[in-house]
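Structure, all two chains, one model.
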Amino acid sequence: MRKFFTLAEMKKSLLMAVWFIFLTFPIMVVRVNPIYKVVEWRWQNLVLVGVSAFFLSFLWRYFLAYKKPAPAKSPLETSARKGKLSELQRHPAARRAGIFLAATLAVAFPYIFSTYQVNIMTTALIYVVLGLGLNIVVGLAGLLDLGYVAFYAVGAYSYALLNFHFGLSFWVCLPIGAAMAALFGIILGFPVLRLRGDYLAIVTLGFGEIIRLVLENWNEFSKGPSGIAGIPRPGIVGVEMSLNTSSIFLYFLMIGLALLTILVVTRLRNSRIGRAWIALREDEIACQAMGVDKTKTKLTAFALGATWAGMGGVIFAAKTTFINPASFTFLESAIILSIVVLGGMGSIIGVIASAFILILLPEYLRAFSEYRMLIFGAVLVIMMVFRPQGLISNVRQTYRFKGLQEENKEGDIK
Amino acid sequence: MEYFLELFLGGLTRGSIYALIALGYTMVYGIIELINFAHGEIYMIGAFTALIVASVLNIMGFGPITILILAMVLAVVYSCAYGFTMEKIAYKPLRHSTRLAPLISAIGMSIFFQNYVLLAQTSDFLPFPSLLPELEFLEPYAFIIRSSEVFIILTTLVVMVLLTLLIKFTRIGKAMRATAQDRTMAMLVGVDVNRVISTTFIIGSSMAAIGGVLIASHIGQINFYIGFIAGIKAFTAAVLGGIGSIPGAVLGSLVLGWTESFATGYISSDYEDVFAFGFLVLILIFRPAGLLGKTTTQKV
């Protein structure tokens, strides 16, 4: 480990401070009012930038040197370098205790905290489901989807429109919304089957934008930018619910859906189709040579991924009781993708953890509400620089032979 | 016919601006296979710097030509500085990690820059002074083409020629082509790859800044969000032409510009972006590697 307060390091940091002062000068210091033709000089910002750049550059270099050299390249190597967290994850007693703790907390939550907190938690749970859904497409099948929010919009609008025109209830619309989203997943899937990574990314992004723009401009169909209001919250037949109970009901509904998602996604991952997805992600050609139907595998990934977004959308519409196209922008897709990547691609616990962090962090940062998106952007960059494999890196399914454990230090036979 | 010509020239102007930004995307992609989502933000920062410089100089009482030159130069300098710094902070430490990590980092950078400008400046639209001089001989044709459009098209042309010369005939251009072909091999024959990557970011950023200043003085207003839309469009253009290919980026941008211009002129202006993306999907179905992209055979 190098020493970090030597003269040379000081000099480097000083240089950084000067560079950042130069860099931020026009935007941070000068503010012009073009109408009144007044220039406002904010010299105090100059000092602020200089001092923070000086100290942050120390931290930056320290952590960069601290970061383990040569990060893993493929998931195979990742599984060899297990963190303490995943070690803990494997320990049965710790696991049971963790699940018990989480369950108690989840059940008690709405009775301890206010409705406001419950609503935030419901939102976070919606993002857990969205993250797990996108995890199928990006994490397991390796198809980079930048327009995932389109399916979310399809789900939300399915419920809103079916309810508005035909008066269909939430419970009828939930499967319909999911099915509609799956259908759109297949519609998107077909043209992009032949595309490679980044072409796929831009087409999915375009698809997401097309859906949003159509919703925004087709006034007769979707009421345009003003959106649809007065969407009923879900209920049980014959039970009148106050706003408070209804939030709690929605919260438990969401817990149920999240559990269902976790169950289905775990089972899917270890199933025949799940293994086909992972094989497709690792090597498309080898996968085809082994007799995996590429078309079918990719389409199921898109359809099954979209299904969860559709359900999430229906619940989102029911929760906010008002939707408009502004809720389904690219930023939303980017946030969901960040959840998947920050959590550790393919890792289910990681995705859940990062969904909570990424959604709750901006909510509780409301004290600095102006700065929260700035911090969000910075967190994404910092996370990627210092921990590109995500919070909890994915552990590949491995077989253990007890007798071999002494010889093989990793304890895993791949 | 006049209407057609107007749309044609409008599309050409649009396409030129897209091309200036798309080149930055495509060059960066060609060299490190990264979709630099924050590239549009560099363009926005260029436009903001120009606005700030121009306003300050205007209040100090400088002449229009001095303002134009100084604003342009400083916008380019600052955009390059931002592009360079961004690469060092957000992408360089990620050189050897998975494909998705730099992409997320780029999205983070993009969100960061948007909010940085939003907080340090303002969220409102700011009026942008028309820095470009009016050409008098174009007066009779004002309904077909504005003089700012002429400037945009001509500047883009000059920049394209300069870029082609740079890439074809200079040492750094050769190094860039070598790095794009095979980074490891380029390193082995003594190319300083880090320098090449930095240079690519600087060149891309300077073109984005030029595009930013031109379009801002053409349209007459800017805010912190302009970079995002322009960035996505330019990226679409780069993919349309075949990402990684420099003539492809120019062709893709022009095609995209014309598609938007004609579709809005003849069909409906509400669905401008829908046409752009729909067209992209259509092209990619029939040519999965873009218009000029090479279909590489994957070897096992």
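Chain B has one domain: 2-232.
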